[in-house]
Amino acid sequence: MKLQKLIDYLEAIAPPAYQESYDNAGLIVGDPNVTIKGVLICLDSTEDIIAEARKRKCNVIVAHHPIVFKGLKRFNGNTYVERTVMQAIKHDICIYAIHTNLDNVYRNGVNTKIAEKLSLKNLQLLAPKKNLVKLEFYLNQSQIEAYQKYYSKKGVPAGFHNVHSLLAVQTDKKRDVAEMKYETAVAENEVGDLVHFLQNSIGSKALQYNTYPISERNHQVGSGMIGHLAKPLLPATFFKRLKKAMDLKVFKHTAVLDKKISKVAVCGGSGGFLLSHAIRQGADIFITSDYKYHEFFDADGKIIIADIGHYESEQYTIELLHGLITKKFSNFASHCTKISTNPVFYY
Q1: Helices in 105-162 by DSSP H: which ranges?
Q2: Burial category of 36 from C-beta neighbours within 10 Å (exposed 0-12, middle 13-18, buried 19 and up)
Q3: Number of H helices, E strands in the chain
Q4: Residue 224 CB contacts under 8 Å (≥ 6 apart), including other chains
Q5: Which CATH number does the domain housing residue 300 bear?
Q6: What is the C-alpha end-to-end distance of the chain, expressed in Å?
Q7: What is the mean pLDDT of each run of 10 residues along the chain (347 residues)?
Q8: Is residue 236 part of a domain?
Q9: Residue 298 burial (CB count, 10 A)
Q10: DSSP secondary structure letters along 8-54
Q11: How far are the Cα atoms of 54, 81, 89, 243 from residue 310, in angstroms, in the given order?
Q12: pTM
């Protein structure tokens, strides 16, 4: 089976257009037309993961985090990113990342998996993105260069959070001029302004584009998750459940409040930007990671913040992806990595 078929399946679950502006999800290394021999699933692509893939005879790695976030100017092996990419290329191993697009979907999403581990009920997205449409458009090489030059001067217009994560997904050979197809998700009422921005960038109104509604029934899109426990628990009791469910030895938290925990908000990875949403929706505790010292003060006696660690909050994404892939495909082996890529240790 070709890798492209697996990519199509994963992107039907978590469309690339749903990723955040800073992200770089998608096929990072490799040819989508290679035949899959085996798939290794992990959180982070590292040199050790490449070695494990070789040992398990896997030529495809499906990772949550992209190994490359920014452009690489040299491949000298001076950083772990360069070394990992070089090893992948040397050994014909493809690396595919499914990151914030998987974070942002309700069904089969990262945060839904966390909520499942904590046995939360009546789940809702913590910060839903509503009235989204997919904008699909085409640029030829000269237009791409013009857009990049225009963007470097003007920057992203206010409100267009996904503009500079425009995603080249294929070459359209049916047109007279070879063009790249791009897509992004944008609020319906902002499509006109975005099209105008793109037209200005290429100096022409002859922009080839289409818009498609995003069905909220099939693809609920947004950040974080909030739900209820089956019954309210004392903080100490819930903390024990949290440690067991998320396989934690320790975690950081703000002052315990004098009330039981009933409503729980979660966000895998760095979710501090969602604290106001959690407070506004009446959550008793907000579980996420990557909080800085002064940010803990933002709990302000209104909520408990629990920082459980970035790796720890997303570790079950491996299990999630393995389940999705093995349920759909039986013509190649799919493995969960046996390596912890957590760079944080506790003494």
Answers
A1: 110-117, 141-154
A2: buried
A3: 11, 15
A4: 111, 125, 126, 127, 265, 266, 267, 271, 274, 277, 278, 288
A5: 3.40.1390.30
A6: 45
A7: 96 87 90 97 98 98 94 88 96 97 94 98 91 82 82 65 50 61 78 87 85 67 95 98 97 97 98 97 98 98 98 98 96 96 94
A8: yes
A9: 15
A10: HHHHHHS-GGGS-TT---EEEES-TTSBPSEEEEEEE--HHHHHHHH
A11: 27, 19, 28, 14
A12: 0.82
% of the chain exceeding 70 in pLDDT: 92
CA dihedral 148, 150, 153, 154 (to 10 degrees): -110
From 188, 213, 238, give the residue that closes a domain. Answer: 213
Domain span at residue 298 reads 110-125+223-313
CB contact set of 12 (below 8 Å; sequence gap of 6+)? none
User: What does the pLDDT read at residue 166?
Assistant: 53
Instruction: Give the number of domains in the chain.
Output: 3
Q: Report the candidate in 125, 114, 121 with the shortest Cα–Cα distance to residue 278.
A: 125
CB atoms within 10 A of CB 268: 28
* 248 and 199 fall within a common domain: no
Alpha-carbon distance 61 to 39, whole Å?
6
Q: Which amino acid is at 149?
A: K
Does residue 168 form part of some domain? Answer: yes
How many CB atoms within 10 Å of residue 315?
Answer: 21
Task: Answer for the pair 114, 223: CB distance below 8 angstroms, yes or no.
Answer: no
Q: Within this chain, do residues 66 and 154 fall inside the same structural domain, yes or no?
A: no
